[in-house]
Amino acid sequence: MAGAEPVIRVRDLAARFGGNTVFEHVSFEVRRGEVFVILGGSGCGKSTLLKHMIGLYPPAEGTVEILGQDLAALAGEARRALLRRIGVMWQSGALFGSLTLAENVEVPLEEHTALPAEARALVARAKLGLVGLADAAGRLPAEISGGMAKRAGIARAMALDPPILFLDEPSAGLDPITSAGLDALILELARELGTTFVVVTHELQSILAIGDRCIMLDKAARGVIAEGDPRALRETSTDPVVRAFFRREAMA
Question: Where do the structural domains in the chain lie, given as residue ranges?
Fold first, then answer.
């Protein structure tokens, strides 16, 4: 993936709310087919950055290009067409409680395609099969575990076959075994399908297990303080904040 083309380009991005600057001068690229991790401590702006990247927040400064297009500069059908090429899984899974897992996956298909009901049902079952939930298609979100809900959220994010998936804290609240299984799923989807993943997390074990590259945000610095292979950063970084994060050390 070192020579793969960038599918996301963030240039000199700043996030400000009133007089509060969350981060500024943030620049990086995400390459096709890689698992790219946005990490850092609580309150550093990880989820805020993700929301800028998927168009929920407009940049105070700078640009976010998805597949060669500046998302903030698009409107109407051009913007909707680009947004259909990304999928998002939120931290809780964000499933509709009154719908079965299969019906949850069908929601974007019903909203954005003209597929008949039979075809939507087939696609939904196929996506659930990819995440190991084929036998749970008829169950409600209240009837499944937290790990299964996250898998179902990924299946719904994949419904329209987007080349890029954004995952917000996928391992949060999961036990170590369930979290490891979800990490393995992310890697499998990235390698087998060629899907590009942008993963927001502070879970160190997951970062080291799945991340091809990462950026680290820092609240005090209001921006990026490290970028690269997370395993290399753990071993070679001389920045005390980066070392403390990767080595689970308390700051002096």
Answer: 87-161
